[in-house]
Design a protein that fits this description.
The complex is a heterodimer of chains A (about 110) and B (about 120).
Chain A lengths: L8 E5 L4 E6 L7 E8 L6 E6 L4 E2 L4 E4 L5 E6 L8 E9 L11 E6 L1
Parallel strand pairs in A: 1-9
Antiparallel strand pairs in A: 2-7, 3-4, 3-8, 5-6, 6-7, 8-9
Chain B lengths: L4 E3 L2 E4 L5 E6 L6 E7 L6 E7 L2 E5 L6 E5 L5 E5 L8 E8 L10 E2 L3 E5 L1
Parallel strand pairs in B: 2-11
Antiparallel strand pairs in B: 1-3, 3-8, 4-5, 4-9, 5-6, 7-8, 9-10, 9-11
The chains are: A mainly beta (about 110), B mainly beta (about 120).
């Protein structure tokens, strides 16, 4: 599975868009990009995933570069409840193991 | 729908002891995965069970074993506990089959402390 690199921490003002970058320069052609988040004292929660095209759901948008070497998770209007560790994962669409890195600790501030 | 449930919530053991952690998957799910999360780290994959068999395994010693029951619930057993086994143990369930990504739903975890 491809390795991902994320910033250790980021801050975002409440109500503003939070843009979380992820580098996955060694991703292979059939590996997906998944995003999960983990709010303190809870288990991780699935957010979104994509292969090549940009994706959007009720929680977030995922922008994948054309060369697929990096991606950005966008929370369009961050709230205090979005404060969490966000994990970017690159892997195969097999419903199998997830390889978590260190993640980005996002702090949404009033 | 109760989601993924795990028991117990917290557990304290001493070195050398054995522990069993339990997980009930989300309704409709037949696959259970276990993860270990040390403080300040991301979760690390231990193994995955489907059809009562271990299907995938991460880089964990044989002291870590598991079981899946016909009702899809699962147990994680750890023998000869070490101090380094202190962690949050997460269970995740998913639905097998199909070509659509099988989102994994995580439980709240069991906090194991080894003294």
């Amino acid at each position: 599975d491809a390795k991902t690199t994320q910033p250790t921490s980021m801050d975002c003002a409440e109500g503003r868009a939070a843009n979380l970058p992820c580098n996955h320069s060694t991703i292979s052609g059939n590996e997906y990009v998944y995003w999960y988040r983990q709010i303190h004292s809870q288990g991780p929660q699935y957010i979104i995933h994509g292969l090549k095209n940009n994706e959007t759901n009720e929680m977030a948008s995922l922008i994948i570069t054309e060369d697929r070497k990096s991606s950005t998770l966008i929370l369009p209007h961050a709230t205090l409840r979005d404060t969490a560790v966000y994990y970017c994962i690159a892997g195969y669409n097999q419903g199998g193991k997830l390889i978590f890195g260190q993640g980005t600790e996002l702090s949404v501030k009033p | 729908d109760a989601g993924v449930t795990q028991s117990p919530t917290h557990l304290i053991k001493t070195r050398g002891q054995q522990v069993t952690l339990r997980c009930s998957p989300k309704s409709g799910h037949d696959t259970v995965s276990w993860y270990q999360q040390a403080l300040g780290q991301g979760p690390q994959f231990i193994f995955q069970y489907y059809e009562e068999e271990e299907r995938q395994r991460g880089n964990f010693p044989d002291r870590f074993s598991g079981h899946q029951f016909p009702n899809y619930s699962s147990e994680l057993n750890v023998n000869a506990l070490l101090l380094g086994d202190s962690a949050l143990y997460l269970c995740a369930s998913s639905r097998s089959g199909g070509s659509i990504y099988n989102e994994q739903f995580f439980g709240p975890g069991t906090r194991l402390t080894v003294l």
